[in-house]
Amino acid sequence: MFKSSRVEDKKKTGAQYRVHSERVFSNYKAMGPLPWGLLLCCLGCGIRPGVWAQFPRVCMTVDSLLSKECCPPLGVEPANVCGSRVGRGQCMEVQADTRPWGGPYTLRNQDDREWWPRKFFNRTCKCTGNFTGYNCGDCKFGWTGPNCDRKKPPVVRKNIHSLTPQEREQFLGALDLAKNTTHPDYVITTQHWLGLLGPNGTQPQFTNCSIYDFFVWLHYYSVRDTLLGPGRPYKAIDFSHQGPAFVTWHRYHLLWLERDLQRLIGNESFALPYWNFATGRNECDVCTDQLLGAARRDDPTLISQNSRFSSWGIICDRLDDYNRQVTLCNGTYEGLLRRNQVGRNGEKLPTLKDVQDCLSLEEFDNPPFFQNSTFSFRNALEGFDKADGTLDSQVVSLHNLVHSFLNGTNALPHSAANDPIFVVLHCFTDAIFDEWMKRFNPSADAWPQELAPIGHNRMYNMVPFFPPVTNEEFFLTADQLGYSYAIDLPVEETPSWTTTPSVVVGMMVALVGLLMLLAFLQYRRLRKGYTPLMETHLSSKRYTEEA
Fold this sequence. Notes:
With about 550 residues, this protein is of the alpha+beta class.
């Protein structure tokens, strides 16, 4: 996501974005895994059809975990496994990407997210047609109807500043309701795999979390370090940033939240808004009490008490503590939401020109498909390149720059999703991605099949989503996934040198003039006794050789 160090001080500056990418790539001896303790990570708490979690609770039985099979029945008929009796799917072997990955993660068989999700389940429901879900009980994004064969009217994501008062209140109210409503389907684990089964090995350790906090936890889980032992994390790993999957992972993450909120408020047409952050200003125009919270007067790093977000606690912030204790974020609130506006050091938000430059890049990504790729649309959008695709290690741009500008909680990759601005920020990032997809219409081959960082190959299943879904499946235009953006992102026009007659005539005139000038200069040289260059005799001696 961004270049951040593993620190707790929320008053650090935007330099954290750069430090995050300069992790120490030390190798450690791994600890032996429990036979199936890891299988209980992120225990679900009852999944209704169509909800996609890390794992559905119906599969969190000893039999399912030992057999590594998650193929529950659809409905009440036990034999209707994966909806097979009604033609929705079959229980099949999980296809996990086995192509080699590149990047800084050099360990093998040490992280439970490798070859996702086969370390947990190797047989799941494989749905047919437009059916999807852990038991094939839902429709893919953009489809509806009993047989999932009708296109759903797309929801329209609007600029947050253009929402009507009713739409604005619906969005803000939905976020707050999600923050304060226990998730009806999922729980999170309170211990890492070493202690997850409890003292007697039969009592999984987990707790409830809210709908929004689960959204935060998913993001944390995708960027967390590999835990090898007390105080021995392996930091060179990130499944949702610093590689091609940055765009598809966050797209799927947003679609998931959008669907959760639609169901929470009972409005299938509800759409997340976006924040057009390309203002070039040094102020946050959504940081108001009417929107996502102004700064508090007595402590500008906190949210104004006139905002509903002033009381929002944050989770998954103390990564160093988790690493030292060899545990996972357990959903405990670890302080209040912060935006360190006083720590910006004169930073300004990206400009429309930055967006235009990024959209002019024709290559989706370039080797090594990492944070040092150049002339890569993905890397420029993520913000490791300058907006025009050139690499400058001292510069952050676009997405990374906005996180840096907001600072505070937003500057830390494992905790950034705590801030509701994360949602509208990433919707605009996704809008830029969608605009690029529509302009260049890339084939699937634009995405590397192998040698991208772990998690970023085209056919890698995105971590930690379940049932498995690949990066390729979301390398589409938004309208194919049931949503669109009410936005117009212009691009700077470049002159066509081959189609304009006046340009061709001008080039011919310039060429004739150049030839006449060269002829005149040659005539003067000959008159003055100069020897034409073609007639000179060049020495074959090298500069460092003796004459």
